[in-house]
Amino acid sequence: MSMDLITKAYQATEEGFFSLVSKQWPMKPQIAAVGSCCLVGVICGGNLYIANLSDSRAVLGRLVKATREVLAIHLSSEHNVGIEAVRQEMHSMHPEDSHIVVLKHNVWRVKGLIQLPHLQKCLESAASTLTCLDASQCHEAAASM
């Protein structure tokens, strides 16, 4: 088990989604506005591997013996252009496109369509191009199991 293996699984899923969108695009261009989330957690060899794509969250609950309360420990970060750092990353990756991230109906969106910047490839039509980044990131945390 490795983060590379999880990354490859994410890439294969993304390629499958892109293939579906490419086939559906001529008849249903609104399919490009559809998003999804994916969160994977794998325990292997005493390590906890967390992979997060989009705005899912992985949280570990740990019992504090002294107080008998459960402490929430965030193991992943959210990937959504509603977060300033993600918007800045999008702008730095696409400096030629001043409209890569726009505020539409009080919601930040990639090209005015989606909040989640996760497509790796370009979706093209005669009128416009949607270019997004692969925002999947793997986080490795030691697990004391």
From TrEMBL:
InterPro entries: PP2C, PPM-type-like_dom_sf, PPM-type_phosphatase-like_dom. Keywords: Membrane, Transmembrane, Transmembrane helix. This is PPM-type phosphatase domain-containing protein. The keyword Iron does not apply. It comes from the Eukaryota. The chain crosses the membrane at residues 31-50. SUPFAM superfamilies: PP2C-like. The lineage of its organism: Eukaryota, Viridiplantae, Streptophyta, Embryophyta, Tracheophyta. Residues 1-145 form the PPM-type phosphatase domain. GO terms for molecular function: protein serine/threonine phosphatase activity. The keyword DNA-binding does not apply.
